[in-house]
């Protein structure tokens, strides 16, 4: 299934012309769909959606995400079971695990310098990825580096003023990775909608069992499972509503 060609042209415009109408239509028509038809998602469509997912904003372009498309019949059956046999998983055309990585920042920092599009790589870029990023994430044995970082940050705040807190603990790094990966997941779901398909992000799954199925390690964290496909007539369970905007938006 493909989107309306006019909307597709609007969305694909490469210049900076605002595309509010097309964007609004995508966001407002996106729903968490629980039942899908038998219509498949073509491989090229899914590949484009994943490409768009990876254009999501992320801290220092370190891209701490992975996407596991579960197509193997046996693996899919087990994955659906791990999702408690939810209809959104069971009827999906594609089932995708969106995974955050807490162990790739160092390798990705080096890869950025190898693949940096401007040559020679500016010194400030080299310094950022070899020094600043390293100090941001390094914890050391028994968090000894984190203790030193914490003391140094307090001194800098007193002398120079505001400064970003580095990552002191594993939980800090995990929050960083999952926050960035969630941004990519939203891009993926909106891209699917732009292509005329739908999705359902699922937090209800057995993560240890899913990690065993996908052969993931301790530094892999499944942020969500996404079921994707063409919306069935009975795919949306409830009328959409949100609380009043004034409850959540504060001007200070």
UniProtKB/TrEMBL annotation:
CDD domains: MhqN-like. Coiled coil: none annotated. The keyword Oxidoreductase applies. The keyword Hydrolase does not apply. Keywords: Oxidoreductase. Residues 28-229 form the Nitroreductase domain. It is an enzyme of class 1 (oxidoreductase). Its EC number is 1.7.1.-. GO terms for molecular function: oxidoreductase activity. It comes from the Bacteria. InterPro entries: Nitroreductase, Nitroreductase-like. Belongs to the nitroreductase family. This is Nitroreductase family protein.
